[in-house]
UniProtKB/TrEMBL annotation:
Residues 324-383 form the Multidrug resistance protein MdtA-like C-terminal permuted SH3 domain. InterPro entries: MdtA-like_b-barrel, MdtA-like_BSH, MdtA-like_C, MdtA-like_HH, RND_pump_MFP. Residues 1-21, 400-434 are annotated as: Disordered. NCBIfam families: RND_mfp. It comes from Paraburkholderia fynbosensis. This is Toluene efflux pump periplasmic linker protein TtgA. The lineage of its organism: Bacteria, Pseudomonadati, Pseudomonadota, Betaproteobacteria, Burkholderiales.
């Protein structure tokens, strides 16, 4: 009976099919397939359209032109009076009174100080008395000689008497000359008690006060007088700068005016330009062994006294020329990792990077020594948005926000070369090309 029951049980399992877990896996697989198909359909429905191509950047361009370009050289300079006179006492004595207003312009011959003259008047009086004595003795000697000469001619007196009479007359004449010199000396000393200005110029403050005892031998400086017209302007040129100019002239990159006839303008501390122009009238032939520079002096007419001695100004030297030079806007020149470069625009309006060698600075432009040819077009505004081989859209006029904001924001634009130019000067010189 057990055997029959077991057989019936196995038959019933066979009739029901596979076990329950196998059916669950089959249903789960179909569900996963349906879910994957739904997700694929959903992604296909939400797929975005392809992004449009990037628009060509807008830039402005300029055409490279080669021409003769005037250049200026700028140096730090200082004004100096063309005549700076020390007013000193020439005799010993007491200073009675200052006769001028400190800081005012004094005229030639104007009395500036008055010393006590009474001792000198007395000395003059004494000298005149001694002169009168010697003149009286001369008259006696001459009268005696006049009497002796005819007697000696008649042999009434000896030859010795004649010689003595002649000697007395000559000695008296010499004593008169000496006495006259004493009188002149006394008159000069008396005149020196009135101290006058030898020139027209600006007076300084008095170094000695009324009642002071001054001497001619000690450092009894009374004051200064500065001549204001004309005025000198001194500046120095470094040895490196001179060698650079010489090499550029030899290479035909720089040309000085004939006879070095430069025109000089000066810029005052407030940025204004002095009305008068000047000329270089002196250049020291020797270098200063301490600074490695040599002095150059320009002279300026200063009729209104605008310039004063000791002012620091900027001397702008005009008259030089850079023949067949190329000048481009500074904002078109970018600074790469190793060199400066510009974007050259080809015939298809595509950008090509070009390495250039920059020279001096002139206003807001840069001289290009190497790398560009006349007729080529370069990007000016918008250069920072350009990449190699990129198609460009050339527009007229400045690109909004392209310069100088681009250069300031990125720092890739070349910095203004004022620092590197001034480092070669001057001080300079600041001896930088403007």
């Amino acid at each position: 009976m057990k055997t029959v029951s077991v057989l019936h049980t196995e038959q019933r399992r066979h009739l029901r099919g596979p076990a329950e877990p196998s059916g669950w896996l089959h249903r789960s697989g179909r569900a996963l397939l349906l879910l994957a198909a739904a997700m694929t359909l959903l992604v296909a429905c939400k797929k975005h359209p392809a992004a449009p191509a990037a628009a060509a950047p807008e830039v402005t361009v300029t055409t490279v032109v080669q021409r003769d370009t005037p250049v200026d050289f700028q140096f730090t300079a200082q004004t100096q009076s063309s005549r700076e006179v020390e007013i000193r006492a020439r005799v010993d004595g007491f200073l009675d009174k200052r006769m001028y207003t400190e800081g005012q312009v004094v005229k030639t011959g104007q009395t500036m100080f008055q010393m006590d003259s009474k001792p000198f008047e007395a000395a003059l009086q004494t000298a005149k008395g001694q002169l009168a004595q010697q003149q009286a003795r001369l008259q006696v000697a001459r009268a005696n000689l006049a009497r002796v000469e005819p007697l000696a001619a008649q042999n009434a007196l000896s030859k010795k008497d004649l010689d003595d009479a002649i000697g007395n007359e000559k000695q008296s004449a010499a004593a008169v000359i000496a006495a006259q010199g004493e009188v002149q000396t006394a008159q000069l000393n008396l005149g020196y008690t009135t101290i006058k200005s030898p020139l027209t110029g600006l007076s300084s403050f008095a170094r000695q006060q009324d009642g002071s005892y001054v001497t001619a031998t000690s450092n009894s400086l009374l004051t200064y007088v500065y001549q204001l017209d004309p005025m000198w302007v001194n500046f120095s040129i470094s040895e490196n700068m001179m060698l650079k100019y010489r090499d550029e002239i030899a290479a035909g990159q720089l040309k000085f005016p004939q006879n070095n006839d430069f025109v000089v303008h000066i810029v005052l501390a407030d940025g204004s330009t002095f009305a008068q122009s000047g000329r270089i009238d002196f250049a020291n032939p020797a270098f200063n062994t301490e600074t490695g520079t040599f002095l150059v002096r320009a002279v300026f007419a200063n009729p209104t006294g605008t310039l004063r001695p000791g002012q620091f100004v900027k001397a702008r030297i005009s008259g030089a020329l850079r023949p067949n030079s190329i000048l481009v806007p500074q904002r078109s020149v970018l600074q790469g990792s190793k060199s400066h470069f510009v974007w050259v625009v080809d015939n298809e309006s595509k950008a090509r990077q070009r390495v250039v060698e920059v020279g001096d600075w002139k206003g807001e432009d840069w001289f290009i020594s190497e790398g560009l040819k006349p007729g080529e077009r370069i990007v000016v505004d918008g250069a920072l948005r350009v990449s190699a081989g990129q198609q460009l859209k050339i527009v007229a006029g400045p690109v909004p926000g392209a310069a100088p904001a681009e250069a300031a924001a990125s720092g890739s634009a070349a910095p203004p070369p004022s620092a590197q130019a001034s480092a070669t000067a001057q001080g300079t010189h600041s001896g930088t090309t403007q």
